[in-house]
Amino acid sequence: MILPGLYNSGPGHWQTLWEAELPDVKRVEQQDWDHPVKDAWVATLSAAVDAVDDDVVLVAHSMGCALTAWWLASGMPGLLHKSKVRAAFLVAPPDVGRADFPAPSFSPMPLIPFPFPVAVVASSDDPWCDLSVAQDWAKAWGAEMHIIGAAGHINGESDLGSWKQGQDWLNALVAKTEKTKQ
């Protein structure tokens, strides 16, 4: 499941390209991409997870990372099915506690251990989150950490195309879940 952030992921964004190129990828469509409200976004994610019969891997960007953390922290009814979630791949988590953050209902970031494998990818020059903050969150979540270098907010403006390195990290994360299922 693709979990875009604020304003959705546009045509040049790696999430949009993955959705078009990879099999069995579905975007979770929020009702309001421009004015996110945490409880509405959490309910939408919960319903999306509940609606599928197969295992799910959450592939989140920016606000989608905060959404994933809040979904786990919320205790939504859909969490009865959280065992469906095999892993989460969280790219460019934003600092939701910043005074200028456009979605204050997502603050503060939940710092709970994830009950499934998780990886965080952060940039050394992300304008929406200092690397040290992303590293602290990764540690709190029990995540493996990947630092991509200077790639901004790791979005369409980062000009990553289909982002092969990200796909490799995601595949490695999913492979770890295969080993734990055996």
Automatic annotation (TrEMBL):
Keywords: Hydrolase. InterPro entries: AB_hydrolase_fold (IPR029058), RBBP9/YdeN (IPR010662). It comes from the Bacteria. GO terms for molecular function: hydrolase activity. Gene3D superfamilies: alpha/beta hydrolase (3.40.50.1820). This is Serine hydrolase family protein. It comes from Undibacterium hunanense.
